[in-house]
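User: Show me sequence and structure for the first protein, then do the same for the second.

Assistant: Starting with the first protein.
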Amino acid sequence: MIRKVLSFLPFLAVAGLALFWWLTVPGRIDSARLGGLAGDPARGEQVFWAAGCASCHAAPESQGEARMVLAGGMAFPSPFGTFYAPNISPDPDRGIGGWTVADLANAMLHGTSPEGAHYYPAFPYTSYARAELQDIADLHAFLATLPASETTSRAHDVSFPFNIRRSLGGWKLLFSRPAWVTEATSPEITRGRYLVEALGHCGECHTPRNTLGGLDYTRWLQGAPTADGKGRTPAITPDKLDWSANDIAAYLATGFTPEYDVAGGHMTEVVQNLAHLPETDLKAIAAYLKTLPGGG
């Protein structure tokens, strides 16, 4: 009996490996969904600022126009290792100058590289998965207008077992949630939800995570430890952030709080980005935040 069971073990191992391989295949967009899309770089610039691309992909400590050179290099320490933002400038060899709209869509919607590998979720594709294809096409058109950089992207410092990229397919099955987190009850709140839950990826910092790094959607935007474990990102639910909608919109535009304090830390970058958006978008973000249930 034992010998018979043992004879099945190789078969079970192969079947298990095949099932794992099938379940963890990197996702790709159906190319038919991209038919007829033409990117508009002017609209793409607004997507660029809403998505905060320069905050992560500009070279560390760059200022002014240098922030538009998306050479990468910023470090993101985490319990799983240190990740480094890649070069996403239009350089065809070291950046993403050779990418198609489909390549960018696969990266943002599925966390899949042009070579068919999983990206680490330090790149917030779990939020970008809610982005509209037209916005991705517009962003692709705008990125092509930026200065190219020949800087080589730095390899992530990630040890076993987190360096097994194929296992990220299992992580995505568990924690990737492209559905909206909240309901929207008006066009303004729908726009605010899109900016917060998708392009702005606010939940990536303001929502707690479980031990495997997945967002805890039951505590949406209720504050969380920073990824490096050295601080805490505040809650922005109405029970903790009691500013008026006008106060929130003004803060996002200027960085000044109602108490005449100023934004600090990473929010400085966020304000620099959001200040480029029209006032209607900032008011939509504020309206959305005011609809959230209070935290526990």
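Switching to the second protein now.
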Amino acid sequence: MEILLIAAIAKNNAIGKDNKLLWHLPDDFKYFKAQTTGHYIIMGRKTFETFPKPLPNRTHIIITNQKDYVVPENCYIVNSVADALHLCEEHQQQKVYVIGGGQIYEQMMNVATGLEITHVDVTPDADAFFPQIDPEKWQPVSVVTHAIDEKHLYAFNITVYKKK
């Protein structure tokens, strides 16, 4: 099973503050939607709660310690990263995406088979961070660049990494 961490990260590895994203990048959102649609997505409870409703055409796996946490249809609750991965295996998923937050990325970094990272050219104040990408373990295999334009306040590169 492919386990892919997908995130947009700043130069200082920032991914969020006060449970909010740090930027609005429509073309990055389009990439995220194109990659994750039709797949299982794994996230922490706080990440799930940032959505007004579940993302369409994706099966959500929410990791939480809260008992009796209620979720809509097409969502699963588990208590650990191991349980999330086990559920994906039981459902015979070939590819799953981990979409946040910082603690979940940290726990999944060693089991991930690939990273799909939008590197945003900014260094914001933040309280949630993506783990350091170790160049000894991860090799970039493709990069797509995006300049600042009327819809994007920041330049960014979407880089796909494979484990060495």
